[in-house]
Amino acid sequence: MPDPKTGDSVKVKTSDKEFEGILMPIPDILDKDVTVIKLDNGYNIGIDNKKIKKIELIKGYKKPSHSKKKLKPKKGLPNITIISAGGTISSKVDYRTGGVYADYTAEDFTSMMPELADIANLKAKKIMSIMSEDMTPKEWRLLAIEIEKELDSGADGVVVTQGTDTLHYTSAALSFLLKDLSKPVILTAAQRSIDRGSSDAFMNLICAVKAAASDIAEVSTCMHGTTNDDYCLLIKGTKARKMHTSRRDAFRPINDLPLAKIYEGGKIDVLDKDHKKRSDTKTKADTKFQEKIALLHVYPGMDPSLLDNYKDYKGLVIAATGLGNIPQSLFNKIKEIDMPIVIAPQTIYGRVHPLVYANLRELSIKLNCIFAEDMTPETAYAKLGYVLGHTSKIEEVKEQMQANISGEITKRSLEKTFLY
Length: 420
Fold this sequence. Notes:
This protein has three domains: 9-59, SH3 type barrels (Roll), CATH 2.30.30.520; 79-285, 3-Layer(aba) Sandwich (Rossmann fold); 293-401, Rossmann fold, CATH 3.40.50. The protein is built from eight helices and 23 strands. It has helices at residues 106-112, 137-151, 167-177, 201-212, 331-336, 358-366, 377-388, 394-401; strands at 9-14, 18-24, 34-38, 44-48, 52-59, 79-84, 91-94, 99-102, 121-126, 157-161, 178-179, 185-188, 219-224, 232-236, 240-242, 251-253, 260-262, 268-270, 284-285, 293-297, 315-320, 341-345, 370-371. The chain has an eight-stranded mixed sheet with strand order 9-6-10-12-13-14-17-18, sandwiched between helices. β13 and β14 form a beta hairpin. It is globular.
């Protein structure tokens, strides 16, 4: 019998235990005196070679075929475009590091989930392969342009796949960059890579395609609503936020209720009856965006001289404590900075208020800071870049930042939205 090779199913017998799994390459970061196998539960373990008595071959590895058949359109089904931008949802394991890297294209999604062909006529389009922490406003603009192109050339909806870490930045930015939106634009992703047994990629994508075929013509995120496979939450793009590093239900609506619950079997429970509905307007990508802006988190003992780093910037969002407080030591520095400064809540939930305390009134009235109501700092950042792309006049910036453009500001805070 030949010696087992990478990818083979094997049984590893040690001095005190047996393990079955797939023989894996040894990551560069590990000691070479170990054998790595992937267990049936999707996790890898390293076994000290000194403890191994025998490695038995169970089944040899057969390289899978990656041929992609072009799907024939079915009458009566909506036309949905899946735009792939990378991220964990389109990732394989990188065995040099033990991490993951963006590899699968959007076409791979349709071949791995043939049931998607019964939901919609799919068009797959890969426009970039980038991990979300590397995304910039340049990529947001590119996405907006591609979405406009698809929506105005026959697509009934668009699904965008990218990484989770900055998904809420992208969803907020697209909410402002896509003007006169008349069809659904759904952002989805995965907390766990698609080659893991516990991956949320399949259900998230299926629910996202269903949402893109719905009547909810909003930019929104579609991710697991619970740690189980119960349903996905459709959340307005300006109100979504990643609230956990690894849970499958990491994305929650902030200061708002979800738009809907999307079930894998096809059921859609609409929770926001005031959502935008489909129309015949032409969607336009309004890609003017001021990139020279920053998001700054204040903290006790903060050195005021840090603000000197932003003197040549065009705008600044400060994630402030409580109702919008910042250290008194920063006030003089703010006076020196000639740019719009937006105050957002670092508490995430709740809203800032310019009139409750004397120091807040000074920030608002004397220093002309703009209080961002109940916008998250990330949404305020995306909105400020969009607004400054169109005007630099402080009064116009203030007026637009405090106007509800894309559902980013709620009229009043509802108790049931907290920790939804």
